[in-house]
Amino acid sequence: MEPDSLQRNETVNPDSTELDEYRATEECLIIKKDPVGKMEKVKAIIVLLSCISLLSIRVNGIGANWGTQTSHPLPPDTVVQLLKENGFSKVKLFDAEDGTMHALKKSGLEVMVGIPNDMLQTLATSMKSAENWVSKNVSAFVNNGVSIRYVAVGNEPFLETYNGSFLQTTFPALQNIQGALIKAGLGNQVKVTCPLNADVYQSASGKPSDGDFRTDIHDLMLAIVKFLSDNSAAFTVNIYPFISLYSDANFPVEYAFFDGNASPIVDGSNTYTNMFDANLDTLIWSLRKNGYGNLPIIVGEVGWPTDGDMNANTQYAQRFNQGFMTHILTGRGTPMRPGPIDAYLFSLIDEDEKSIQPGNFERHWGIFTYDGLPKYQLNLGVGNSSRGLIRARGVQYLDKKWCVLKPSVSLSDSKTTDTISYACANADCTSLGYKTSCGNLDTRGNISYAFNSFFQKNDQDDVACDFSGLATTTNMDPSTGTCRFGIMIEVDHAISSKLPQFGLLISSFLLYLFLTAL
User: What phi and psi, each to the nearest 5 degrees, are found at residue 213?
Assistant: First the structure.
């Protein structure tokens, strides 16, 4: 027997507002083609004005994920300015760090604050802890001009790779944070959500209409979905066509993009030529089958990395992200849910300290580099969109010098292997590898890249460019082609977490061993 909620929400048709917007978009497309054809001129003008207003609303709705797992993050004020100047209207965070939140005061940006997975246990077992968290991280900032709209409880806590670590704590934490928001008088203003990976639902046939929640978490998902619905909250999902391509050698490349070149998947009366639409509609079918076909959906993360894998490059990233933006700007939505899509691009800036356990690409999701430089042209459809992305302003760098392998050092030197391993373990060498941005470097180039990464991460400390006497500094930029040998942001212009002093002690120790061996 179907649950009662199925009878209450048995249709997935959009609400009247979404339907009106969808129809308005259709009229916009017709008028742009023939503004004085069958339609009267007056009506054409009226509808065109409506189009401008409608598209403005949609475009301004694009958000960005702002992660801070970097050794030298840009100052929060700089990032907020970067968001605003590039037309983002909302930002999704993975915590509620004070500096970040203070920078967002009176910024006009809509904010989704995050609660890390390692806090779920405490919040699930203590209502007092939940109340304290809301008081410190939500109420205090709402009262000081931060437009917090959502609290994201956990981040993809049901990933199969977590082996059930958060199955018992996520929902109770979600309930307690909601209770704390209500107690604080913010229940209507701030909504809870739980960003989930798309692996929480599946389709055995690959067709969206066969979608349903994973069997091992089916009951838990229904409880969460009902809770979100009862509290007028949204389901947040992260969708990554790149991951499908990365993990499946047989995945059709064209199906990851929005160009319409892929062999279509036909599902009843619906046809799909891109994975994003099919994946989102699989979720919508999963919700519909369980009685919640009208539950609002937020796409919490969607994007494409630029390095660290053969399919992670600026060409594919630009193609995917521009395709996605163009797709959502039409306002057509998906076959199962026409209308605007609420989404956050992943991500804003590269993060050089993210875990690379899923893959080296994890440190390269940003549409901007670590120092706020646009990686490629991307039209977000806002403001002076023709000028493309705008770089971060006022970024200051260390001296123009790099650390490289001494020309006199022989590659047969036994110390080279250990030193490059050490440098890569304590810096970032994810741009080295097959078909990566630095994949064409020779052996000497690879070693120099590793040395320089370590040197820059340690704020160009002289000790960090020794490597048992194998390295030296140079004023000549060793960058070549697509491979950029970076220069670090000045310490005074970054909230630097730096490399632990233990790393420098090891480097000094290696130098000591080398000198004493002479």
Answer: -70, 150
* Residue in 227, 154, 237, 141 with CA at minimum distance from that of residue 189: 141
Helix, coil or strand: residue 194: coil
Residue 492 exposure: Cα atoms within 13 Å on the Cβ side:
4
Q: Which pair of tokens denotes residue 52?
A: 């401008």
Q: Residues 346-381: pLDDT tens digits?
A: 999 999 999 999 999 999 999 999 999 999 999 998
Catalytic residue status for 27? no
* pLDDT for 40: 53
Query: Which residue is catalytic, options 110, 301, 351, 362?
Result: 301
Q: What does pLDDT average to over the chain?
A: 87
DSSP state of 320: H
State the pLDDT at residue 325: 97
- pLDDT number for residue 449: 98
Q: Which domains does the chain have, with CATH numbers?
A: 4-93+195-383 (3.20.20.80), 402-516 (1.20.58)
Q: Is 122 helix (H, G, I), strand (E, B) or coil?
A: helix
Query: Tokens standing for 255?
Result: 């199906």
Question: What's residue 491's pLDDT?
Answer: 62
Name the DSSP class of 315.
H
Provide, rounded to the nearest whole percent, the portion of the chain with pLDDT above 70. Answer: 82
> CB neighbours (10 Å) of residue 53?
11
What's the pTM value of the predicted model, to 2 decimals?
Answer: 0.86
* pLDDT beyond 80 at 260: yes
Q: Kindly report, residue by residue over 376-433, the tens digit of the pLDDT.
A: 999 998 765 567 899 999 999 999 999 999 999 999 999 999 999 999 999 999 999 9
Which member of 27, 131, 156, 351 is catalytic? 156
Q: What is the DSSP string of 235-303?
A: EEEE--HHHHHHH-TTS-GGGGSSSS-SPPEEETTEEESSHHHHHHHHHHHHHHHTT-TT--EEEEEE-
Active site residue 131: no
Q: Three-state SS for 227?
A: helix
* Residue 154, phi-psi category: left (phi > 0), alpha (psi -120 to 50), beta (remainder): left
Cα→Cα distances 475→178, 402, 403, 482, Å? 56, 6, 9, 19
Cβ pair 9, 292 in contact under 8 A:
yes
- Cα(71)–Cα(93) distance, rounded to whole angstroms? 17
Instruction: Tell me which of 8-17, 41-50, 288-297 is least confident.
Output: 8-17
Burial per residue of 115-134, b for 16 or more beta-carbon CB atoms within 10 angstroms, e otherwise:
bebebbbbbbeebebbbebb
**In contact, 80 and 109? CB cutoff 8 Å:** yes
